[in-house]
Amino acid sequence: MKRLGAILSAALLSIAAHGAEYARLPGGRFESVLPQGPVPTQSTPVEVQPFELRKAPVTNGEFLAFVTAHPQWQRDKVPALFAEKSYLASWASSVQPPKDTRLSAPVVNVSWFAAKAFCESEGARLPTWIEWEYAAAADETRNDARADPAWRRRILAWYERPATAQLPPVGGATNKYGVSDMHGLVWEWVDDFNALFIAGDSRTQGDPDLLKFCGSGAISIIDRDSYAVLMRIALLSSLNAADTTSTLGFRCARSLEEPQ
Amino acid sequence: MTATCLGRREFLLSMGALACAPLTTFANGALPPDSLYQLQASLTDQDGRTFDLASRRGTPQLVSMFYTSCEMVCPMIFETIRYTVQALSPAEQRALQVLMVSFDPARDTVQVLKRTAQVHGCDERWTLARADDTTVRKFAAALGFQYRRLASGEFNHSTLIELLDANGRVVAKSGKLGNADPALVRATRQALAPPA
């Protein structure tokens, strides 16, 4: 049995080493639902640098290989600073995913710190919000399908479906970049999740609002019809880095060139 | 002047200041699981000295984040911390350190930090530090700071002052700027008191 376990772990480790497939995204001018310019109520397109993104969210099998190779990220060893109690709580043991869950299903109940450490272990990082939003704007044929009401309805339909007890495997239909499951499977961590705070209300003006956050004050949402994306922002902005939820996973990204 | 300088999350956390410090003593080697010093982070201070975050262990700290070109709230953070320190006895003041970490390592070079420390009259108790972007993001995440760089080069960020005990656990937070927050002063005294 011990030997079988060793073979199994070795096989899993090799999945982790070789199985991570990344798609190359060309980047370019992109308009976020979050204002990026000096005027909070005005959209300012930003230049997204070319980057690579994992084609699918990280799976249970891949995360198992990670915690096997990096025991400090097993649920009984990880410091509370990096992951709360719910971290991998549904796993059968610290090195066994939940019994009734597929290895090919996306891993959930992982904290931001754990997701970040996983990505670092394969020479990658978490995508930034803008990178994620840019990749998620594409449908099968268009780089930016966001203005299409039919596409919006399709995405929103996911949120109307009751959650299934078991998450399906990763690797759904791919978008134009060859990336799958940006919508419809799980929520995903981004590197700058703690940059997504939103001022609640544009009616609040004056001193209290100016002091709420240092800087040029409130930001607001530019495209209020992108409900699906707005829900993601709302969720991410409410989280702490050690938090986990049963529908929140992640995927990794890589810069093409090391920034100076 | 008391201002509500809080995001939703911080607001919930700090109705007043959150004092939640059971006086647990950990053996020298064992770091509490929720200690900030679990984070491996290398920082550089205003004198160009590089240090590990965990090297702050042993001394209670008031911790906040800032950036130098911030004109509005950041000077108030320095001021508020100074008032908080001044509310303590001289002996208490000697047993406390202040750690200020910049959101803006690109512009807050060692020289800029040095000048900022002088401008705000920071004595040897104060460390103004910078680190690489990834470390700053992790540091902020661990302490629950939210921040975003704007195209103008300014930052939006939450304004908080957090108190770490000698083992690096957050034992109080305050979002009140202006005068010293009495609840934070109380919690600081408690953190400085020798364990009974």
Estimated share of beta-strand residues of chain A: 5-15%
Spatial ordering of strands, largest sheet of chain A: 1-4-8
Give the CA-based shape of chain A.
Answer: globular
CATH class placement of chain B: Alpha Beta
In short:
Chain A has 7 helices and 8 strands; from the N terminus they run αββββααααβαβαββ. With 260 residues, chain A is an alpha+beta fold.
Task: Please explain how this structure is put together.
The complex is a heterodimer of chains A (260) and B (196). Chain A contains seven helices and eight strands. Chain A is globular, with a radius of gyration of 19 Å. Chain A has a three-stranded antiparallel beta sheet with strand order 1-4-8, with no helix packed on it. In chain A, helix 1 (2-18) packs across helix 2. By secondary structure, chain A is α+β, with helices and mostly antiparallel strands. The model of chain B is unreliable at 1-24 (pLDDT under 50). Chain B has one domain: Glutaredoxin (3-Layer(aba) Sandwich), CATH 3.40.30.10. Chain B has 196 residues and is α/β, with parallel strands linked by helices. Chains A and B meet through helix 3, helix 6 and strand 6 of A and helix 5, strand 6 and strand 7 of B.
